[in-house]
Amino acid sequence: MKKTWHKIATIAVVGVIAFIGFWSKKGGKELPVPVVNEERNGVAGVVVEVKGEVKRPGLYILDIDSRVNDLIFLAGGFTANADTAGINLAAKLSDGMVVYITAKSEEKSEGKISINSATIEELMQLPGIGESRARGIVDYRNKNGRFNAIEDLTNVNGISKNILEQIKEFICL
Predict the structure, then answer these.
(1) pLDDT in tens, the chain (173 residues)
(2) Last residue of a domain, one of 53, 80, 105
(3) I need a labelling partner for 78 at 20 to 30 A (CA). Which of 57, 101, 105, 109 fits?
(4) 10: how many CB neighbours lie within 10 A of its CB?
């Protein structure tokens, strides 16, 4: 009698588990995939990508008032090879921004200003580049990532081919 009762109990438990498993797959609807947008649970946010010399490069979703420092913290911090001299950790992040952290070993030409790491003040030392154009270069770089060619500067609002020719000998990537 004990063996029969044990078999019935085992079959009942297996049956209940099978029924629950079948019912949850059959009867339950698939869970909706959350859509990432700028408004999450009433809190505005930004999606930012960090590349280069950080421990965990990638896409991050942060609060709208976040700073570059917050992004670097989420990305695990700088690598040992990161060139942090030109990084403004207090800069506010904007949606769609790309932050590129250069390496110390990246080629820098003697006496030339790197358009991929220069600050606004450094860029203002170039002929024909005032604060507005320098800010435009930094903003473009922050939003789109590093420049791949010197000629990419013409994609920045206010930098014409003529201005590029004036500064070409003073800049490097």
Answers:
(1) 666 766 776 776 666 676 666 555 554 444 443 334 444 455 568 999 998 889 999 999 999 999 999 999 999 999 998 888 778 888 888 888 888 888 876 555 567 888 988 888 889 999 889 999 999 999 998 888 888 888 989 999 989 999 999 999 889 88
(2) 105
(3) 109
(4) 10
d(CA 162, CA 126): 13
Together in a domain, 72 and 82 = yes
Q: Per the structure, how many domains does the chain have?
A: 2
Q: Are residues 150 and 97 in the same domain?
A: no
CATH, residue 141: 1.10.150.320
Using CA atoms in the order 98, 103, 104, 108, what is the torsion angle rounded to 10 degrees?
-70
